[in-house]
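Protein modeling request. Please complete all fields; requests missing the sequence field cannot be processed.
Requester role: graduate student
Desired output: 3D structure, token encoding
Chains: 1
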Amino acid sequence: MNEGAAAQSPPLVEDDAGELEVSLYETRKQIHPRAVKGWFALSRIALVILTQAVFYGTAWLQWNGRQAVLFDLAARKFYLFGLVLWPQDIVYLTALLVIAALSLFLFTALGGRLFCGYACPQTVYTEIFMWIERHLEGDRQARIRLDAAPWGVQKLLRRGSKHLIWMGLALWTGATFVGYFLPIRELLPQIAHGGISGWPEFWILFYSFATYGNAGFMREQVCKYMCPYARFQSAMFDRDTLIITYDRLRGEPRGSRSRKADRQALGVGDCIDCGICVEVCPTGIDIRNGLQYECIGCAACVDGCNQIMKKMNYPTGLIRYSTQNALREGWSRDRIVRRMLRPRTLIYSGILIALITGVLVSLALRVPLRVDVLRDRIALARILDDGTVENVYRLQIMNSAEVGAHYRISVQGIAGITMSGTELVDVNPSSMKTLVVALRAPSGSSTGSHPIRFIVQSEDARRIKVSEKSVFRVPTAMP
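Delivered output (479 residues):
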């Protein structure tokens, strides 16, 4: 990876004593990406619309009279459509994170930074903010002229309108984000009437500020300096990974010329050195210098270059998705596609498929009942007047189904053991019930710890049954 190709030498400043000072910090240059049309640009637009429709729309979906997707931290319950998860189901969250990581590894090994270029929230919101900016201030050259123009009524109106729309969108985004943790149909009326405060208000403002700052001002700085993925992506690349590449053999030596000029007679390549690949790049790099860590794989330079190639009546693809091996060996597209099925990607795919299958099977076979047994720490065991031994337990019965359930409780493990208290318990939908149970073993039971099992079975669906282990303690009789 040619990470240093686009780097510039540190600026040298001579002080009064005649000594040179080397600045290790580069002053940020404002980047005004040029609008571009093409297949990849349409793909980005489609994914922006899709991801935001999911983000803003899912919070409003209803399921069984409640919000379909809700992470209710106060009640410690996560609702995912018909699925209700409790903190004890953290294994599914772990599996989800592992699946996301493996998917990122697989996509990166196949096509480089596809996630960064098309679906990363930073890229998506930066794209949306730039659409608003272009609509109000114009394309690249118009924005550059507006930057250089003195402040006046027109500049104030354009800039003020842009920032007002940005702030409105950022606030709406922050409220939607919090709406996944508090019911959004209750949250928005509270915001409208000024009845929100505390942590909800903090997180709305925090997420709004992050969206406004990252997408409106920092933009490429987040991708270049703050995102760790840009730094370790090279560990997931190989020479068969599809990346944005410049065909140097075809394009060099570059040089400007008229559309009718004979490039063979001039001794130049297909690159006319127009610079459009740099002007459309959201991170401001020149892809002709080779792959750089700042490249997010958005392919805007591919669309821009193809536009110029069509105008010059040259073949498209001077800048394209390809691999380092394909450029060196001159492979065809079919050969590139076949090389996608290599050991690294096959291993990633196999593990990913197995993990997803395991999670889906586990969810399909998941019993909507969980039982936790806790021993009473105050009175572990005691001998009653009639000689029987009593142990006290606290049972937590969780019904993760969205209908009420009736459960029967029984115990096994010691001959003649009995349970005092109710054997039948009703648990409301998506609720947990705690009850105290006393077990008594007949006199004459051997001292020590005896393994027992609590059996909790649904009276409505006999297949729903949970067996939970515990121990019954028989103390030594006092003299």
